[in-house]
Hints:
Elements: H1 3-12, H2 18-28, H3 42-51, E1 57-64, E2 70-76, E3 81-89, E4 92-97, E5 100-102, H4 111-114, E6 117-120, H5 123-137, E7 141-146, H6 156-166, E8 179-183, H7 187-196, E9 201-205, H8 211-217, H9 226-240, E10 244-250, H10 258-267, E11 273-279, H11 293-305, E12 309-312, H12 326-333
Parallel strand pairs: 4-7, 7-8, 8-9, 9-10, 10-11, 11-12
Antiparallel strand pairs: 1-2, 2-3, 3-4, 5-6
Helix pairs in contact: 1-2, 5-6, 7-9, 10-11
Amino acid sequence: MTLDEIEKHFQSDGLQKFRAKQVFRWIHRGVGSFEEMTDLSKALRIQLAQQYVIPPVKVLQKRVSRDGTIKYLFRLGDGECIESVLMCYHHGYSICISTQVGCKMNCSFCATGQSGFSRNLCPAEMLGQIQTAQVDAGVRVSNVVLMGMGEPLDNYENVLRFLELVSHPEGMNIGMRHISLSTCGIVDRIYELADRKLQLTLSVSLHAPNDEIRSRTMPVNRRWNVAQLLKACRYYAKQTGRRISFEYAMIGGVNDMEWCARELSRSLRGMPAHVNLIPVNDVTGTGYQKSSGEALKRFVDVLESGGCTATVRRTLGSDIEASCGQLRGKYKGGNGYEG
Ligand code: SAH
């Protein structure tokens, strides 16, 4: 609930309005129960616990990488599991959170898609991932990326509400410029989001320069093709004044040829864009190979000489299977990862 909504509920319960702000602050500091809200009377804590729930996000398993990255497997109230990754950069801590349990999009290279879709996360479960990680690791997160399990624009209303809550001054107060939302390209929603003119960074998982390759690897491309997606991206950039970030997982022999880079730089011409190249992560059963260092370098060179800025994303947490869906997949498969 937003602060306004808590206030309304409390007022109709006959509680004083200022209690709402107290409770809101506690929740957003990561307190998981009313019992711990020590500036409320015992009687009030009991009353609240009878009437309301704080959806639990509990650490089920945790892995710490040599580079400091922490991968969490969280358990939700109904026993479902989701993943988050806490990363330490020179500018502070970033967390990558999930927006759904599983995913419907079925990208051929992605581990999350392999285990199917269970349900959407509610806004509290998205916030809970940040709060639980902050409390567990004893740090404050300054950046959030919606780039974990699930497709954020396929859970649009809940994600919007999450964005409102996470940026609230009485809550975590994380500004939109410190948030990135990654999408596989739900074009209708990109237009809607653009019209809200939020200052968040839109990351678009492009992964291919044309429909032939993209439809083979990303089924969503059969609904909205590359031209339609890029048109929506131009609109987003125009409405928000923000540069679009394109994700491009480099798969050996599939999308990493020089002509792909040339085609890509032509398509992105005139758009404020940045391309993030990511050597594809190994996912069992896909048969895909990472591109060579040489192919990556050539790709960057071709993009840049075509006037497109590009970087190769630094890999964090590769020793702990930190990428999206890898840990939950193992857990579900019962490979001895029970925490
Ligand atoms: N559904 C959203 C966000 C979740 S996936 C989206 O598609 O953008 C987060 C990012 O990881 C996406 O860019 C996705 O394409 C990428 N990804 C998935 N599997 C990958 C793999 N095996 N190697 C590299 N990137 C991968």
